[in-house]
Amino acid sequence: MASMTSTTGSPRPSSLDPExxxxxxxxxxxxxxxxAQQYDTGEVLMLGWMDDEALHRTLTxxxxxxxxxxxxxxWVKGDTSGHFQWVKSVxxxxxxxxxxxxxxxxxAACHTGARTCFDADVLLKDADLKDADLKDADRxxxxxxxAGPEDAEAAGSGAPGSGQ
Length: 164
Hints:
4 helices, alpha+beta, two-stranded antiparallel ribbon, single chain, 27% strand
């Protein structure tokens, strides 16, 4: 059984497969962001945090388990609200620092009662983009087709260290 340190410094034991655990890149407090996405529509539902044990529970129970940073405890989506997340797949991103959990969401995903956590405060809508911005983005994309990640970064299309 692997062990990790909580945000309070106390160990949280984990039964996560050591091969999976070795691949994860965690934040300083031992957590990995987990994006919940509706499996059949692609709708982004919420962002939660998982440590090794939360990921183990998610992989083995078929229900999303998260680590609450504020309450410093595990919580299973739907246990109190009835708004369950039934796991369909779990993927690790190319940098091994973010999880994508595709789920079948029952009811609201957001604690506010909204379907997703991303409906209330939209900062930019597709309709707000200007034609000139789109043409510029298309031109940059065309200039970088076939370029490697280093070329794209050097051309300014990705933040340093982002790998994009």
